[in-house]
Amino acid sequence: MIFKRKLPIPKEIKEMYPISPEGAAAKRSNDEVLRAVLSGESKKLLVVIGPCSADREDAVIEYISRLRPLQDRVADKIVIVPRIYTNKPRTTGAGYKGMLHQPNPQAQSDMLRGLISIRKLHMRAINETGFSCADEMLYPEHHRFVDDVLSYVAVGARSVEDQQHRMTASGLDIPVGMKNPTGGDLSVMMNALKAAQSGHMFIYRNWEVESKGNPFAHAILRGYVDSHGIAHPNYHYEDLARLSALYQTSGLVNPAVLVDTNHSNSGKRYEEQVRIAKEVLHSTRHSEEIHSLVKGLMIESYLVDGCQKPEEGVYGKSITDPCLGWEKTERLILDLADLWV
Questions:
Q1: What is the DSSP pairing of strand 257-260 with strand 294-300?
Q2: Please, what is the angle between helix 326-339 and helix 272-284, to 10°?
Q3: How far lies 3's CA from each of 6, 7, 9, 97, 101, in Å?
Q4: Helix H segments across the chain?
Q5: Contacts of 138 (CB under 8 A, 6+ apart)
């Protein structure tokens, strides 16, 4: 291992790029709205939506800026949280790892520029649109660089079994969604939620810290892959009923699930997300328990349908998993507002 250079600590990056008073106020307001949804106090549908990975600042900001008037149109039914996923897990370690690693997808990795780029991107989103966004906590150590501008954190299917992710989640004061693992074992996810909702003493960034537990840690169903490499969904009525039963015997507070409409649930067939989202809402109308459990959806969407290789350079088109384009996204959000009761 070669130690290339020492990076600034989170406090230094935050002092270089401080959040505005207006941005801080917007985040506090957004946080309260999300807590109300996940506690059941609010009956609105939470929609965490955006590109599979944030690849370029201009296209991501344009996308989020388009979400702003759409949110205003559906504000009585839906709460939108834009995805700005700035670091991406790679199963084999190969491929684009997100803006944290490569602020320019076609250039070499530059972590210092990456840290600055992801902070500036999240800050532009909140300052220009009022959205405090969602990001994936791929590295627990990097969360502190952006914790003052986020309102939602996801722990991915490959990270949900990791002790440091679980304990870090237990110390956050914003909702944390924890996905079922890639193999689909829901007991692993439920154990992660138990750990995240409990208090702990642990080491974090060279500090001995104590967490009180995060009552808004909740489940995300994203489908799974079996031992033969075949993708299986877990968003159907029976899957939601099973999760509801697991919650009832778990002792966890604020039972909640978001359904990830892409990944193994769609088999990465991005257009299936429209049908899947509507089927989930249909299930909520046939069971009060499921309606109470389902708090929202996670949708992968960008300006242009599909995906591309990084070198193709199509503006607003995903360079990782395929996404719904804007026209389909807008229609879906409006349809969901009509369907949600």
A1: parallel
A2: 10
A3: 8, 11, 16, 20, 16
A4: 10-16, 21-39, 57-73, 111-129, 163-170, 186-196, 237-248, 263-266, 272-284, 288-293, 326-339
A5: 87, 88, 89, 98, 100, 156, 159
Residues 108-162: tens digit of each pLDDT: 899 999 999 999 999 999 999 999 999 999 999 989 999 999 999 999 999 999 9
pLDDT in tens, 208-219: 999 999 999 999
| Contact status, residue 234 vs residue 265, Cβ threshold 8 Å | yes
CATH H-level, domain 10-339: superfamily: Aldolase class I (3.20.20.70)
Ordered by start, the domain boundaries in the chain are 10-339
Q: Which residue has the tokens 């429209």?
A: 274
Burial of residue 79 (number of CB atoms within 10 Å: 0-12, 13-18, 19+): buried
Q: Are 189 and 179 in contact (CB under 8 A)?
A: yes
- The letter for the amino acid at 326 is W
Query: What are φ and ψ of residue 29, in 5° steps?
Result: -65, -45
pLDDT of 90 above 80: no
Averaged pLDDT for residues 179-205: 97
The widest CA-to-CA distance across the chain, in whole angstroms, is 57
Please state, in angstroms and rounded to a whole number, the distance separating the CA atoms of residues 117 and 104.
10
pLDDT in tens, 225-277: 999 999 999 999 999 999 999 999 999 999 999 999 999 999 999 999 999 99
Average pLDDT value for the chain:
96
Amino acid at 331: R
Integer Cα distance of 120 and 272 in angstroms: 33
Give yes or no for residue 295 having a pLDDT over 80. yes
